[in-house]
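Question (not urgent): is this output format expected?
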Amino acid sequence: MNQQRFLAGALTLGWAASALAQTARKPMNIIYIMSDDHSYQTISAYDDRFVSTPNIDWIANHGARFTNSFVANSLSGPSRACMLTGKHSHKNGFTDNTKTFDCSQQTFPKLLQQAGYQTAMIGKWHLTSLPTGFNYWDILIGQGDYYNPDFICNGKQLRRSGYVTNIVTDVALDWLSNKRDKSKPFCLLLHNKAPHRVWAPDTCDLDLYNDKVYPMPDNFYDNYEGRLAAQKQQMNIEKDMNLVYDLKMYDPDVHTNNKELEEWGFNNYHRMSPSQRQQWDRHYKPIIAKFKRDSLSGRALAEWKYQRYMHDYCRVITSIDRNVGRVIQYLKDNGLLDNTMIVYTSDQGFYMGEHGFFDKRFMYEESFRTPLLVYLPGGKHADISEMVQNIDYAPTFLQLAGVKVPSDIQGVSLLPLLQRKNPKTWRHSLYYHYYEYPAEHSVCRHYGVRTGRYSLMHFYNDIDEWELFDLKTDPEQMHNIYGRPGTEKLTLKLKKELLRLQEQYDDPIRFKYK
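Got this back:
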């Protein structure tokens, strides 16, 4: 598959130069599609072990696949704030999900709007305050619901019938067709709720992959030796994934040690219409009956949980991919493909059972790394290996639109990479900072630096622990080599780089040499 992509990229270079010259004469539209918790492992352009995503892959095959794309803070609200502002969490003020986003501050949609763009925000917002800087906004309330979700449309609350991924796309396409000023360029933020927990598939996808057995990660039964923070977390599939809430065992005989999650699970079920519940029950009732008969425990139960999780997660991804295809087809049908940038990404990475985990938060690769696929008419049609971060999106969109990038934006425009200019001074390290503790999943606060080969992180306040990984020899991050003999010079070098980044980004929380 990769060889075919590279061949296609080579054959299109001549066309790319021509298309870039043509599109330079008219403003470039932007469609930014972001899903919630979509792992790069479940996009077949990156990894074809789990699920096929032909429509998302279309963006990669006709554009750029970033192979070293990361976030600044692996949590939904903070990640969205970084994307909107082009600044790290400590600068935009939204460090964790207990905060409220200051909607009066500078964001790239406001700057685009001031430059004459029509702007729209549709789908999951999750920043507590209401959107600003948009000609049209139509957002899910809070986390949003998979079935018959509630929205706030330009200030008015309403409930829409159906499945959330279809609805978000319907609203977006309606805005493109009927609600925008077509004499102006547009920037559309299309934000899916899926595949956020609890991974509830559309009724038409319930039987997908029934016979598929998903390969378990080699480190599924990680004992977290030498990693104290990982020992403290509460996002382990075996111990923490709830049978009712997460795995849809909606049955009065199935009980867990978390009554609140059970109640939320049944609330999701009762939110469905009678027709939706009928189709849901047809699929799940046999699964529930077999589960009760089997009385699983120990590793057998853990591995059953993993398979249930993966089946529903991949079904939800299939719905996203189908709707991405609808957007691409709309652009083709309406003559917009030659002057529209299409971005597909996630607000962070996600664990597909690696280390026994689900969720995100840690600076470990599966959480820190995020998919990023970009179609730019006339842009680069190949892999881009430079290290990029979600603070880079804002300056990219601004530069694409010909808007001056404000000096306080901390990210760097990706446009030179997309246009094959290969800047010689590109960054060689990334900064990460996670704040939300104590909170759900009990992941301790930490900051860190990642280079091309090494990852160094410091867990602070509640504990004082360092972790260092050689990603070349230990890509699964199982062996913390911090403090081992022979790593002294490397550790000192990485700490100096970490401090340099903390100073560069003006983070008030910094480590001190002892």
